[in-house]
Amino acid sequence: MGWWLADSWSMTRRELARWARQPAQVIVGLAFPVMFLVVFAYLLGGGMRVAGGGDYREFLIPGMFALTMAWGLEATMAALTQDLNKGAIDRFRSMPMAPSAVLVGRCIADMLQSVLGLAVMIGAGLAMGWRWHGSFGEVLAAVGLLLLLRFAMLWCGIWLGLIAGRPELIMSIQILIWPIVFTSGVLASPAFMPGWLGAIAEWNPITATAAAVRDLFGNPGVQGTSWAAENAHLLAVVWPITLVAVAFPMAAARFRALSR
């Protein structure tokens, strides 16, 4: 166990060293969600409505926190496919180290980057006038749900990255992922969508997390009478756990198959 922890930390330090060598890439990754938030809050937000009334920015910003956690999937895929194509993972697997440390190091580094990205987004939201109205414990619970979603997306990204294998295939996978990301209650309330689309949006894992954190922050939330809308807190936990339960063993099996 001690050697496994040491190997995992070595892989994590490798990713941290990459940040230091390529700070522009890190800065762009942190700035993109903020720019997206500004576009919707100031340019498009004037024409948006919130079910049950309320300020659109109060509705939007917690949803953007959830969207930022989901977007991390693409960064994980890109980094993993680059290592695969450069032969880095093959070299690591040939060394006297725990093979699983490669994925664990990737996981820890991406979670650290997600914590930093979420902190930047919260700071941007506060600068735009957003405020939470819940207790300190509720705020911590909201942050925990957001990071839980990111953890689930991370393992989905690892699995998809191992399947893609090449950076040029990531765009094809993104084309399939983005409709799932935007078919949610992050930017608009499902109540204003066509009935069939609103039902899909209410059951979206990202919608569940966004609705739960809005409630914990005390911001305007998604109004609905469906089971999914009324049990967003439960779904915000069940969905990520289910995704990890599916993606983790499939990613591990795919990683083991690389040597065959």
Description:
The chain crosses the membrane at residues 23-44, 59-80, 101-127, 139-163, 175-197, 232-253. The protein has 260 residues and is mainly alpha-helical. It has one domain (2-259). 77% of the residues lie in helices and 0% in strands. It has 11 helices and no strands. Helix 3 (56-86) runs antiparallel to helix 5, helix 6 packs parallel to helix 11 and helix 9 (205-217) packs across helix 11. The longest helix has 31 residues, at 56-86.
Pick out the low-confidence regions. Answer: none
| Fraction of residues in helix | over 70%
Mean pLDDT across the residues is: 85
Structural class: mainly alpha
Q: How many beta strands in the DSSP annotation?
A: 0
Shape: globular
Q: Note the beta-strand portion.
A: under 5%
- Rg (C-alpha, Å): 19 Å
Number of helices: 11
Would you spell out the secondary-structure blueprint of this structure?
Layout: H1 2-21, H2 23-44, H3 56-86, H4 88-94, H5 100-127, H6 136-164, H7 170-182, H8 195-202, H9 205-217, H10 227-230, H11 232-256
Helix pairs in contact: 1-5, 2-3, 2-5, 3-5, 3-6, 3-9, 5-6, 6-9, 6-11, 9-11
